[in-house]
Write a structure and sequence with these properties.
Elements (H helix, E strand, L loop, with lengths): L6 E12 L2 E9 L7 E2 L4 E3 L2 E3 L7 H11 L10 E5 L4 E4 L10 E9 L11 E5 L1 H9 L6 E8 L3 H12 L6 H7 L9 H18 L9 E2 L8 E2 H14 L15 H18 L16 H17 L8 H8 L12 E3 L5 E3 L7 H27 L16
Helix pairs in contact: 1-2, 5-6, 6-8, 7-9, 8-10
Length: 395
């Protein structure tokens, strides 16, 4: 069926789904696929994100392998492979007029045992676990269906990986880290998280960022802040806070650099204000915990609102406003005093909506009392001091 030379010639059907979108459907022994395709595992090359696959799940592979070694196994789901332009389709000379969008032919795949994995012409977009099971199963061969497309664009490969896996049990952190490198239309939830994910990535990767390598992602596993907590903080501010001011102010879209200026300034001030609690695991510091991160985001918006007339607060202005709160926060020890009959041990604060609201309101009330109202008293004439400016709490 195949010529075992420097190329693999596979009978295939070419399907034209839409302008510029062509698929190829074929079948072959699953144990042959590693000769021309590899798994593009997610990794970093400096600051650039490369690859898009999750690490193999050994328990899942073992289950599939056991099934393949049983009597009469069947795997109906096709593996999805992205080829680069070295793979070509040769249409058959004689075509039966079955339909206008499909034709028979041969897919020609180059085979070179000397190539490193990353140099092979194919990348596995979906089916990593199934192919690993076929590879390791104690069987001589196992034919498997393959759906393939040809592109040299890594973004298109990544986009297809997200779309294929977004409805499956896939680690959300992997999806969020991949989102900034995509451009295609995505499901609503993922579309909404693409820009916050880009800001998160910049905060986590830019040299000099106070949050550099502090946010836990698949390529930064040692980060102490959960990526989902940082995304919630960013989404809140983009929706109703200081970051909202810099959204779509001109034809160029969002003013990303101003947003990053605010975020770096605020979190740099948080680091310097609460240095004893900074950088510790969430179990040892509620500052780095989801409740602390989201609550401090509301405080960032409040401080920026106080300085709005003067413009965007600098790091020093954020620091000046945060310093008075140092003595009323209990990030690593002691008890939070949330009012009469409501004292909570520092590590009893949980990452729930109720506790986030409790902590955020506490920080905003303390900020109003220790900073905002005092600044108004200094600026206002005596008759105006009886009417302090209200500061909204978290609802």
């Amino acid at each position: 069926m195949f010529e075992h030379t420097s190329e693999l010639r596979v009978p295939a059907i070419e399907v034209r789904q839409s302008p510029g979108r062509v698929l190829y459907s074929f079948a072959l022994d699953g144990k042959q696929i590693p000769t021309f395709a590899t798994v593009s595992r997610i990794r970093r090359n400096g600051t650039a994100l490369e690859g898009y696959q999750r690490p193999e799940v050994l328990s899942h592979i073992a289950e599939i392998r056991s099934y393949l070694e049983s009597q009469s196994p069947m795997v109906p789901n096709a593996v999805v492979v992205a080829f680069d332009s070295r793979v070509v389709f040769e249409p058959a000379h004689e075509q039966s007029a079955v339909c206008e969008y499909a034709r028979m032919g041969t897919l020609v795949i180059p085979i070179d045992p000397a190539l490193r994995d990353e140099e092979k012409p194919g990348f596995i977009v979906d089916g990593q676990q199934r192919l690993a099971a076929v590879r390791e199963a104690a069987i001589s061969s196992f034919p498997i269906c393959v759906t393939a497309f040809v592109t040299n664009d890594i973004k298109q490969q990544t986009e297809q990986f997200i779309l294929v896996n977004s409805t499956k049990p896939l680690p959300k952190g992997l999806i969020y880290e991949l989102l900034p490198s995509t451009e295609a239309a995505l499901p609503t939830l993922l579309q909404r998280r693409r820009f916050p994910s880009y800001l998160l990535d910049r905060l986590n990767r830019d040299n000099g960022s106070p949050l550099e390598h502090k946010i836990q992602t698949p390529t930064t596993p040692d980060g102490v802040i959960k990526d989902n907590s940082m995304l919630r903080m960013l989404e809140n501010s983009l929706s109703d806070g200081v970051l909202y001011r810099y959204r779509r102010q001109n034809d160029d879209g969002n003013d990303v650099e101003k947003m990053l200026y605010v975020l770096r300034g605020f979190w740099g001030a948080v680091r310097d204000t609460f240095e004893d609690a900074w950088g510790l695991p969430p179990k040892r510091s509620r500052l780095m915990h989801g409740a602390g991160i989201v609550s401090l985001g509301f405080l960032m918006d409040a401080i920026a609102e106080r300085h709005r007339v003067k413009g965007t607060p600098s790091t020093s202005e954020f620091l000046a406003d945060l310093t008075p709160l140092r003595d009323v926060c209990r990030w690593t020890e002691g008890y939070w005093d949330f009012g009469p009959g409501c004292q909570r041990k520092w590590n009893e604060i949980q990452n729930t909506s109720r506790d986030i609201q409790l902590l955020a309101n506490y920080l905003l009330v303390q900020y109003k009392s220790l900073v905002w109202n005092k600044s108004l008293d200094r600026m206002a004439p005596p008759t105006a001091r009886q009417q302090p400016l209200a500061l909204n709490s978290v609802s």
